[in-house]
Write a structure and sequence with these properties.
By secondary structure, this protein is α/β, with parallel strands linked by helices. The chain contains 8 helices and 5 strands, in the order αββαβααββαααα.
């Protein structure tokens, strides 16, 4: 994408000739070894779009927190959280799709869901997948921020309950510190038993 920023083109194109809104959907937490996967659905107010929206990975933690507050104050937002039990039972992709459906269900009727990635969840509305959608669509960028901030807050909270694992530092992702903590302390109830690094430790 070079230096380009997300814009509102996908949304405006979809809304042309119709009154129903378009939402962006994204997730955070598909890759970590521990914690939930969180999805967010966001319908931006075209007349009140927070300045500075971008792919959450391109923003600092402080920028994400500030934008999260602006999004929550100006947009319609739904949040779905699939816990570790659901991830291990259904697999991470299906758990992610479930969380996306839960998030959309809190929004209500929309004309179209713009979903980050190349796999479409089953939703009660038309779906348009967009590879790197959080870098192309403002609604998806907003959803990426909401999902990321929500999940990060959850993992920081777990850090106090499970000290020694570094959850506040790595948010459950597979860092060297996390691997060493797992080897030293063993898995917690937050760890995804279906993920290879955790399963390998349990096998010993």
């Amino acid at each position: 994408m070079g230096g380009s920023r997300p814009d509102f083109t996908f949304e405006l194109t979809a809304m042309r000739g119709g009154a129903r809104p378009v939402c962006g959907i994204d997730e955070a937490g598909r890759g970590p070894w521990a914690g939930p996967v969180v999805a967010a659905a966001v319908v931006l107010d075209p007349d009140c779009i927070p300045a500075g929206l971008d792919d959450s990975k391109k923003l600092t933690g402080a920028q994400r927190e500030a934008l999260f507050a602006l999004i929550m104050g100006s947009a319609k937002v739904g949040i779905g959280i699939a816990d570790v039990a659901r991830i291990d039972r259904n697999n991470i992709l299906q758990a992610t799709f479930w969380a996306m459906a839960q998030a959309l269900g809190q929004i209500g009727d929309v004309a179209l869901a713009l979903v980050d990635g190349n796999r479409a969840p089953q939703l009660p509305c038309p779906v348009q997948t967009i590879v790197a959608g959080d870098a192309k669509s403002l609604s998806v960028a907003a959803a990426s921020i909401v999902a990321k901030v929500t999940r990060d807050r959850i993992m920081v909270g777990h850090d106090a309950s499970w000290p020694g694992y570094g959850f506040a530092r790595h948010k459950g992702y597979g860092t060297a510190f996390h691997r060493q903590a797992l080897q030293r302390l063993g898995p917690t109830p937050l760890h995804r038993r279906s993920f290879a690094p955790v399963a390998a430790l349990l096998a010993h």
